[in-house]
């Protein structure tokens, strides 16, 4: 029988649990008649409700965790050192994704989950990976006038706002508009 360190086995189990829960949440969000609750996630994922409450505390936290992982996987942030090229690639991919069928239901679930989550630290934790990725993009391009959290304001906020209004920005024209705005701010002198 192979030996396992104390961290090997739980990490594997934890990863499998998270994967099953995320798969269940994705299926529930794709079904306009389904509701994402601890009970429905437990039933669909096969993960006991006690585990869900211990790990995530609320259904809203599960939705937020799912959304962050999905966005991080589907839309990595490039950091080649060419800010215009990196922004253009990232923003175009983001705007294209926001036009996909099913994205608006995820956005609505994400907004509802964020509104229901009372833990401000949790919201900050959710944004932190993207802020770090944006900061890496800026660092690679040696841009000092902006930071990763400002890119959230300049790139993500308008992209998601228009998508939430049901009028996602055109990937080509919207990309140019957002990239030009970010570069103008990056070059602006006080």
TrEMBL record:
Pfam short name (any one): TetR_C_11
Q: Which residues are in the HTH tetR-type domain?
A: 15-74
* Listed InterPro entries: Homeodomain-like_sf, HTH-type_TetR-like_transc_reg, HTH_TetR, Tet_transcr_reg_TetR-rel_C_sf, TetR_C
Q: Which UniProt keywords apply?
A: DNA-binding, Transcription, Transcription regulation
Task: State the organism named in the record.
Answer: Arthrobacter cryoconiti
> DNA-binding region spans which residues?
37-56
- State if Transcription is listed as a keyword: yes
Q: What is the designated name of this protein?
A: TetR/AcrR family transcriptional regulator
UniProt keyword annotation of DNA-binding present? yes
């Amino acid at each position: 029988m192979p030996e396992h360190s104390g961290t090997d086995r739980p990490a594997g189990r934890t990863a499998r649990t998270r994967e099953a829960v995320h798969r269940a949440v994705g299926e529930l969000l794709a079904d306009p008649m389904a509701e994402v609750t601890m009970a429905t996630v437990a039933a669909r994922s096969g993960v006991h409700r006690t585990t869900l409450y211990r790990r995530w505390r609320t259904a809203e936290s599960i939705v937020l965790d799912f959304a962050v992982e999905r966005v991080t996987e589907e839309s990595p942030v490039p950091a080649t050192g060419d800010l215009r090229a990196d922004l253009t690639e990232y923003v175009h991919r983001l705007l294209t994704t926001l036009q996909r069928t099913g994205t608006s239901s995820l956005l609505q679930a994400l907004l509802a989950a964020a509104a229901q989550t009372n833990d401000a630290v949790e919201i900050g934790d959710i944004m932190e990976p993207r802020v770090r990725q944006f900061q890496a993009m800026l660092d690679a391009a040696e841009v000092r006038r902006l930071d990763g959290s400002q890119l959230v304001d300049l790139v993500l906020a308008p992209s998601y706002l228009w998508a939430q209004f049901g009028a996602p920005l055109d990937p080509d024209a919207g990309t140019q508009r957002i990239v030009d705005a970010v570069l103008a701010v990056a070059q602006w002198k006080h």
